[in-house]
Amino acid sequence: xxxxxxxxxxxxxxxxxxxxxxxxxxxxxxxxxxxxxxxxxxxxxxxxxxxxxxxxxxxxxxxxxxxxxxxxxxxxxxxxxxxxxxxxxxxxxxxxxxxxxxxxxxxxxxxxxxxxxxxxxxxxxxxxxxxxxxxxxxxxxxxxxxxxxxxxxxxxxxxxxxxxxxxxxxxxxxxxxxxxxxxxxxxxxxxxxxxxxxxxxxxxxxxxxxxxxxxxxxxxxxxxxxxxxxxxxxxxxxxxxxxxxxxxxxxxxxxxxxxxxxxxxxxxxxxxxxxxxxxxxxxxxxxxxxxxxxxxxxxxxxxxxxxxxxxxxxxxxxxxxxxxxxxxxxxxxxxxxxxxxxxxxxxxxxxxxxxxxxxxxxxxxxxxxxxxxxxxxxxxxxxxxxxxxxxxxxxxxxxxxxxxxxxxxxxxxxxxxxxxxxxxxxxxxxxxxxxxxxxxxxxxxxxxxxxxxxxxxxxxxxxxxxxxxxxxxxxxxxxxxxxxxxxxxxxxxxxxx
Length: 497
Prior knowledge:
InterPro entries: AAA+_ATPase, CHLI-like, MCM_dom, Mg_chelat-rel, Mg_chelat-rel_C, Mg_chelatse_chII-like_cat_dom, P-loop_NTPase, Ribosomal_Su5_D2-typ_SF. Helices cover about 35% and strands about 15% of the residues.
């Protein structure tokens, strides 16, 4: 039979749609035609595949070869289809049984010598292959990554001849065995290394317990960045589903996922970053910082130094937990369920309100500086806290207050309560959930409405205030929200937003 079909996977965002590589040999003048919306790198695979087959000592058929990459309306790019194309040609030419290709999927770029080179985006393809019930053939360098999809049969190969011998039954390949992937965990910085700032540490506890966004404001050198870097160590560990999502994003973005498996990401982009760097994009859309921070923390230091139009792109993903990048032919969705932590100075010089009176900024300069941040963006930040400068007290002690492990235990207990009650963190409650789980007594509701009117809070801000109050109640394992919880939540909410 001169028709063979090989299963492979494309890469679209962080998904891996199935691609069938069909190879047909017909009589006629020798030629090779590649169809199925291939882009430039895929078109070049014709020459790579021909040289790889010949240099491996195999026969390249002197016939009319037609290769179809189906579905035809899905753009294909990269060298990931080289191996599947080569196997399709060899199987159609009878150099190994076609039936051997039925239960496997193949990814890999071919060198001219027949060696198989690594490709990016293997983990999404591995997860999709596992769901389809097939084994996966990958380059040797990608084997550890593919094995993150537990339960998947992975064959790691370094040369085309190894696969031909395997399919012919001469030298069967053994499934690849992973080596302790879950043990590669790096410790987070400990919160007890931060001297003083008890109010800020309390805000970090509340933010971690309810997955709330947080803004630190204060003069330089008060520890805002130091505090923010400790937040990932307070968050609960990623479960398997979340860890696979994080690793898949890193795989697509050409990052090595094993280095952070299964840690929560902490992204810290510079304030000169563009909008595309934050949300993703490009002719071939790649994930941006907000997607790389999925299930983790996005820290924006010197918040007003970012361009305003760049910050405005955060408003939609802060609400929806995803970002949609539209192109002429398609829309690509990237996950972006991140926790925003930001830091800023109170004025251009940074010393507004300092007891020493060092600030020399005019009221116009201060207003212009603060106008770089829009009200709708600040409205989406649940906790606002001023980090004041404390008296200088150099200490040789390595421990200052509770450790990250102690606070993380409190966070885990609060998160368990939220998961059992509503199935998500308090920050992600929708309006029906807010009504069901954040009910107040008549007296407390009247008191809160009066306070919101005095502070001119928007309805969105009032809803977020209720979510923070619910988190404060969960930290105390209280069934109902009390007046003291509302009062503390109001403390984290500035007026005139």
